[in-house]
Amino acid sequence: MRMRDFTFCCPTEIIFGSHAEEKAGEAVVKHGGSRVLIVYGGQSAVKSGLLERVEKSLMMAGLTVKKLGGVQPNPTLSFARKGVLEAIPFQADFILAIGGGSVMDTAKAIAIGAANPQTDIWTYWLGKETVTKALPVGCIVTISASGSETSDSAVLTDDAHKDKRGLNTPFNRPCFALMNPELTFTLSPKQIACGVTDILMHTLDRYFTPMQGNELTDALAEALMRTVIYYGPKAVQNPHDYVSQSELMWAGSLSHNNLTGLGAEKEFAVHQLGHELSGRFGVAHGESLSAVWQAWAMYVYKEDPARFARYACNVWRLETVTDIDTAAREGIEATVRFFTSLGMPTNLRELLGRQLSFAELYELADRCSRGGTRTVSKFKPLAKEDMLRIYTTANQ
Questions:
Q1: Is 187-394 assigned to CATH 1.20.1090.10?
Q2: Rounded Cα distance, 204 and 292, in Å
Q3: Which of 320, 374, 386, 395 has its CA 20 to 30 A from that of 133?
Q4: At CA 281, angle to CA 101 and CA 266, rounded to 5?
Q5: How far apart are the C-alpha atoms of 133 and 354, rounded to whole Å?
């Protein structure tokens, strides 16, 4: 089976290193902005002085600035709509995100909504309309996790209906990303661990596909995963380790700009399963992924045990195992041990502090399958009953 045809374009300009955030004004001007809506999360950007430094850089570049704070983890549709209503009368022509994936995804949604004021943004996330224009977005990254700073995706949760969905469009690609690893030094070990899990899963969800003979892309994916596995625990142990934080920050961007999946079909089965958990229960995105990964992997690995065995050998270096099935299972177990070592949940009981009822599990499967109207994944297509089995296994 030959490599699939693909088109790859990642136009995001990366400005990486110490004090990168101080180049915000210069970067916005370069990309045509004059009236900038800054979108950020909680008070950490204020307390650390980051927001002040960025605003100063913008003002010195002669830009008009408006600030909008308050983005929460698992970004909500209601807040994004609020941002659109702020951006339009301000006549924003550039959206600047300061934060992690939640802030960046919110900024992308605001950029789409402000450029299309006659259309409610959720219409695009539901697939009822196609995005044809958006305001430019720039990102100042404060956590290594989502890779949203270089990706074409944005995820929102309809908080009124607990419906979490993603939107992929070229118009979601940021113009630039300012990436200073020192901005991650204030993160808690749990935040870093969740980010490490998300980075790893962005490539795992691309790696396990039916595609064979995609050697260069596979090798790039394996190298990225080895890097994350090596430096992730170091960053959790010492958040001020610049080397580890820089490796994770760069890995996060590369893991979600589509590079590690080129030539293969995009899978994201675990992300789809995890989205229902974070949408329904409000748990951290990274935790929702680690909580279902083992159940998913054990359910699907016999579709291609050699693929899982390759993962075990090339990523985990389990080269002494000769039996393919054993190697496949040991690679899965090594991944689960890694999540545990980071303090991440590996089942629903660890994630939520209790086991779910059958009705709750059924609701998750029903939502993920859109009421039984869709399947996810090509590696092993998952219908509603498959999803229910995976959720049930993760619940044990």
A1: yes
A2: 13
A3: 374
A4: 50
A5: 44
Cα–Cα distance, 173 to 97 (Å, whole number): 13
- For the record, the structure tokens of 348 come out as 């629903």
State the Cα–Cα distance between residues 150 and 13, nearest whole angstrom.
Answer: 9
- What are φ and ψ of residue 127, in 5° steps? 80, 15
How far is Cα 347 from Cα 73, in angstroms, rounded to an integer? 21
Are 289 and 190 spatial neighbours (Cβ–Cβ below 8 Å)? no
What is the rounded (10 degree) CA torsion for 7, 9, 10, 12? -160
- DSSP letter for each residue of 169-228: -GGGS-SEEEE-GGGGTT--HHHHHHHHHHHHHHHHHHHSSS----HHHHHHHHHHHHHH
Nearest residue to 214 via CA among 283, 260, 278, 249: 260
Q: What is the pLDDT of residue 392?
A: 98
Q: Pairing relation of β-strands 153-158 and 35-40?
A: unpaired
Low-confidence residues of the chain, pLDDT below 50? Answer: none
Give me the half-sphere count of Cα atoms (radius 13 Å) on the Cβ side of residue 162.
12
Candidates 3.40.50.1970, 3.90.1150.10, 2.40.50.140, 1.25.40.10; CATH matching 13-183: 3.40.50.1970
Contact predicate 150/257, CB 8 Å: yes
Report the alpha-carbon distance of residue 233 to residue 149 in Å, rounded. 23
The count of other CB atoms within 10 Å of the CB of residue 161 is 11
CA 278 to each of CA 164, 283, 295, 348: distance values in angstroms, whole numbers, following the listed order: 8, 5, 17, 12
Q: How many of the other CB atoms lie within 10 Å of CB of 366?
A: 15
Q: What count of other Cβ atoms lies within 10 Å of the Cβ of residue 320?
A: 8
Give the single-character DSSP code of 260. G
Domains 13-183 and 187-394 share a fold: no
For 49, residues 6+ apart whose C-beta sits below 8 A from its C-beta are none
pLDDT computed for residue 1 by the predictor: 64
Coil/strand/helix, residue 99: strand
Domain limits, the chain? 13-183, 187-394
Q: What is the dihedral of CA 236, 240, 242, 245, to 10 degrees?
A: 30
